[in-house]
Amino acid sequence: MRIATTSLIAKYFLPTYLKRFQEAHPNINIYIKSGVTFWERISLSDLDAFFFEGGMEIPTIPQSFEIIPWIRDEIVAILHPEHPLANQSSFCLTDLENFPLIWREPSSGVRKILEAALLEKRVQPMHLGSSTF
Which phi-psi region, left, alpha or beta, contains residue 17 (left: φ > 0; alpha: ψ -120 to 50)? Predict the structure, then answer.
C-alpha cells in the first residue's frame, strides 16, 4: 500500500490506524511518504491513498480517488500563562488581532484554514514568526 501524507497526519493521526491495519493484514507492505506539502510534486495516480488537512491546494485528483472526510479536529491557541487572554475560558478570532502569532509553515493546511477564518472575520493579527526552520 502506497500512502502520501502531511507530516502532521503522519505523526499524530496515522500511526494507530496503520498499526491496526498491519496487524489485520500482515502480508501487506505499507510505504509512506510523509511531509508532503506540495502535492504537484507527487504523482497521485501512483498512490493507493493520500491524507491531507483541509485548506491545502490539491492538484487534479485522479478519477479513481474519492475525497472522504476522515477526522474532525480543533485548532487551539497555546498561550503563556501571563498572556492577557490566558484566563478566559474562550475568546473569538477578533480577540487575536492585537497580538503576535507564531505560524505554521506557509504550505500548512492548518495555517491555510486559520488564515481563511481570520480573513473572513477581517482580522489581521501581527506575524511574529513561522515554525519553518
Answer: alpha
Same domain, 91 and 107: yes
Q: Tell me: the pLDDT tens digits for 18-67? A: 999 999 999 999 999 887 666 667 777 788 988 887 766 666 777 888 88
Q: What is the CATH number of the domain that holds 49?
A: 3.40.190.10
Domain count, the chain: 2
Q: Which helix (H) or strand (E) holds 114?
A: helix 109-120
Asked if residue 53 lies in contact with residue 9, where contact means CB atoms within 8 angstroms, the answer is yes
Evaluate if pTM is beyond 0.85.
Answer: no
Q: 10 to each of 17, 52, 54, 67, how far by Cα in Å?
A: 11, 10, 15, 18
Q: Find the domain containing 80 and state its range.
A: 74-133
Sign of CA dihedral 88, 94, 97, 101: positive
**Dihedral angle over CA of 40, 11, 56, 94, nearest 10:** -150
The beta strand positions in 10-119, using DSSP E, are 31-33, 49-51, 100-103
